[in-house]
Amino acid sequence: MGSNTALPPAPSHFPARPQFQGFQKPGGVEADVSNLEVYGHIPADIDGTFYRVMPDPQFPPFIENDPWFNGDGSISAFRLTQGRASYRQRYVRTEKFVREREARRALLGKYRNKFTDAVEFKIRTTANTNVVHFNGKLLALKEDAPPYAMDPETLETIGLETFKGQLPSLTFTAHPKFDPDTGEMICFGYEARGDGTPDVCYYRVAPDGTFLETVWLVSPVAAMIHDFAVTENWVVFPLIPQVCDLERMRRGGEHWEWSPETPFYIGILPRVGGRPEDVRWFRHPNCFPGHSSNAYEDEAGRIVFDLGLSEKNVFFWWPDKDGNAPSPETLHSQLTRITIDPRSEDLELTAAKNVKVLEGSNSEFYRVDDRFAMRKYRHSFFDMMDPSLGTNFPAIAPVLGGGYPLYNSLAHFDIETGETEVYFPGPTHMVQEPVFIPRKGSGEEGDGYLLALVNNYASMGSELHLLDTKDFTKVVAKILLPVRLRAGLHGNWVDAADVRK
Ligand SMILES: [Fe+2]
Prior knowledge:
By secondary structure, the protein is mainly beta.
């Protein structure tokens, strides 16, 4: 790095933009709190840790209108045991984080555009999208790089995880899937040979970290593949019609641009023993695929794939080439079932033939009882936005902050009965992604607890709300945090018994 005079100016405060104001004001907090205040009671059979990650920029960006999720990954660990709760918060020590701390300023430029950085990074990830527990380590994930490994207890960063050099791809999904029977981790990376490449690398990892199989694919377009799905015999890759163009990036433009002409492609590959030429790209009319709920195969061998589907571009901050983007309040994502015959000659997916809305509410962040992942399931839990529930929008509007979608309730959808139960946390509250905790000793699907971080705009503090799925509409415990945690992305429950294994 040369003289500092060559660097772009570093602002000393966060911009006056919604994504950096109100509840979304970056906190920069690392903390150890040995005992959290509990209202209600934490059932004695709950023993484990809820890990989640949020983007929380350490330094104000020098990029104009930086999106809210370009911040440094900061991990929360909420430990629940013996009816008590404690809390730890640590940043992931990524290369970006460490070098910016040394320089005492932002050095990273635009979201996923290395050509706009103030210095050259080897790995420029923020590790801010998901945190999973695998083979004794926490993996902090963002889809643009390999994971960063962390100590599950201390949240100390161990370093970049390349699986002892086995990782063949430059990238690693933020949504790996875990087979509940075998413990196998199923992953992929897209733009796997670098920015703008259409290469997708699929790999399976044994519970001890040994790579079992790698398949290199070429996708029809260099597009975002955020979440995906796995069944007993198949892997499903949904392509979001946000496309990458290296030339645009070189000119200092965005990594992504919405492409209304691009279909919603779904790639299908055999889960085991597939060859590059075995992938089949099904096509659905242009729309925006969100997060997966689950996937499985029906009696006829068809893939049943449940996900959030929106007609419009949910990532409205990356418009099309003419600058068109929907206004955020017009977005509506619905839990949708897509059924695909993986052996069909007909690659066109149509509303009449293949698509059915399961639950019409505006919803996202679907979670299931992970013991039923990849197999036929009945229960989906998710975040929901229903303005009719009584949110006091005028009261909270001045402190909401912005830049991210809001959900004011948690929902439990029973696919078999078609019924939806709703938990409304209060008129001055919004919810983040929930996790499901199985009840000890019960193998019944969906029998247990739901735990979610809740933003309280009256207190301007964060809370955990714990629900019993057998009495879903009432809260069992509210656990108050002495801090405000801005919008996060994903997290997972890790049972103490699974750590001891
Ligand atoms: Fe995600």
